[in-house]
Design a protein that fits this description.
The complex is a heterodimer of chains A (117) and B (113). Chain A has no helices and twelve strands. Chain A has strands at 4-5, 10-14, 19-21, 24-25, 32-39, 46-52, 60-61, 64-69, 74-79, 88-96, 105-107, 111-116. The chains are: A mainly beta (117), B mainly beta (113).
Chain lengths: 117, 113
């Protein structure tokens, strides 16, 4: 079964508007971490934001925020005030068993975001 | 944030040759590193977990004799693609955890002719 599901293969957003990229996950481990990464055409993976399963508040980093709904097992990324440079692939990822040491990170299939001027 | 480097960034080789890719954590120690492979327009697929001082752990379907991993020090892991074939052409990317974050190298684009 898919651990991380991203149902939007592609998204368009108008410059300066906000956009939400969806991510749902599946785990029975009570301790896990959720990540969002941006991958521009150059291929590098750029870390955006992290949410731990025990974190009480939603994570925020500048224009990025993570809408963490634990009961629904969703971790949507919200990008506010979109910029042309935000056009890229976005991957949601999960690391299970955080408390037991470094475990592998599994990735969703990604969402290609295109910002329209 | 922490920095992970990879070398080379791009390599083109003939079928049947072996290619070594290095992954270094520049400003932190990494007892664990991860190797991923990404085919065009696809997601990152974990190949193996590299552990300093012990054998690597390979994901199901990944041939350990073909993809040799050596984690000789706390800052260096190497992936050797042995007897490379055109189907091994891909983007190989390593990562290392530091705190809650997972830092990625810039990737190595391998093309096997």
């Amino acid at each position: 079964a898919q651990k991380i599901t991203q149902t939007q293969p592609g998204m368009f957003v108008q410059e300066k508007e906000a956009v939400t990229l969806d991510c749902t996950y599946d785990t029975s481990d009570p301790s896990y971490g959720l990540f969002w990464y941006k991958q521009p055409s150059s291929g590098e993976m750029i870390f955006l934001i992290y949410q731990g399963s025990y974190d009480q508040q939603n994570a925020t980093e500048g224009r990025y925020s993570l809408n963490f709904q634990k009961a629904r097992k969703s971790a949507n990324l919200v990008i506010s005030a979109s910029q042309l440079g935000d056009s890229a692939m976005y991957f949601c990822a999960m690391r299970e068993g955080v408390s037991g040491g470094y475990q592998k990170v599994t990735f969703g299939t990604g969402t290609k975001l295109q910002v329209i001027p | 944030g922490a920095v992970v480097s990879q070398h080379p960034s791009r390599v083109i080789c003939k079928s049947g040759t072996s290619v070594k890719i290095e992954c270094r954590s520049l400003d932190f120690q990494a007892t664990t590193m991860f190797w991923y492979r990404q085919f065009p327009k696809q997601s990152l697929m974990l190949m193996a977990t590299s552990n300093e001082g012990s054998k690597a752990t390979y994901e199901q379907g990944v041939e350990k004799d073909k993809f040799l991993i050596n984690h000789a020090s706390l800052t260096l892991s190497t992936l050797t693609v042995t007897s490379a074939h055109p189907e091994d052409s891909s983007f190989y990317i390593c990562s290392a955890p530091e705190g809650n974050e997972q830092f990625f190298g810039p990737g190595t684009r391998l093309t096997v002719l």
